[in-house]
Description:
This protein is mainly α. The protein is 70% helix and 5% strand.
Amino acid sequence: MQLQESGEMYLESISRLKETKGFVRAVDVCEYMGFSKPSVSRAMGLLKDGGYITVAKDGGIELTENGKAVAKKVYERHVLLTSLLKSIGVSNEVASEDACKIEHVISDETFEKLKAYFNERK
């Protein structure tokens, strides 16, 4: 199953929530992302069917290995792209917003080249 941008955002959000809260439920995702319960419920069903998450009987959401890999990839892109944009003078808020848009469409090849370039300059 090929994830769309929204699926990647859900996985990244679940990962961040897991790191800060330890236990993640759909209601936590609703609050964190500002989405309605029906929207989050539908997304959780799609992510579960796609093998990206599991949902326990108590409502706890866990990322599968595939889900963790996607979340890690998206988060790495977000952090690096935000840093790169800030390093050229973009404000923190705009850099983060733009990185969030770019992280989902940039090719692996281009991202790896940007990462190497940025790390050489540090």
